[in-house]
Amino acid sequence: MRTFQLHLIPGLMQTKEYACAVIECGFFQGFSPDVDGLAEIRMRRQLVLDSEDPPHLWAVVSEAALRQQFGGREVMRRQLERLVQRSRLPNVTLQILPFTAGGHAGLNGSFTTLTTTDLSVVLVENLTTGWYLEASEEIRRHDIVFDHLRAAALSASDSRSFIERLVSES
To answer: For the whole model, what pTM was predicted?
Structure first.
């Protein structure tokens, strides 16, 4: 799994409180979602990273996602601590794309690429749906963008130090 997140912490690395805050601020046009139920589903999905044969998750996350205050200061502090913890897993690579990187290849938005031995697909989500892109040219273009993003981002160890500084400031 390779993901670039422009505005949010990746779902596989979220705390329940952060997930609830994100879900609550959604635009639901007249219906109320089961916030706790949706957050619990997200928490169960995270178990895949701790499984016996876990997938590798490579996440590039914009600094904006670290600084956006979902749920308030304490929720964000715990969320940042969770990122540090998850970044230490052997099957997780976390890089932060700092504001100082300036313009970057991911300005068009977040995406996730899922690859197995048989299949690659890119997931692009929006307000009401998600698109699964399967054409080889679309996948290739997203792979190139991801390569540029990870080259522009801080290294994994520098990213962890960056997040630890944010925790100490909060």
So the answer is: 0.91
The domain spans of the chain are 2-169
Fold held by 2-169: Endonuclease; Chain A (3.30.870)
Averaged over successive runs of 10 residues, the pLDDT of the chain (170 residues) comes to: 96 95 74 81 90 96 95 96 96 97 90 92 84 93 96 98 95
Residue 165: Cβ within 10 Å count = 11
> Which residues are 125's β-sheet partners?
130
CA dihedral 106, 132, 38, 41 (to 10 degrees): -100
The residues, ordered by sequence, that sit 6+ positions from 47 with a Cβ below 8 Å of its Cβ are: none
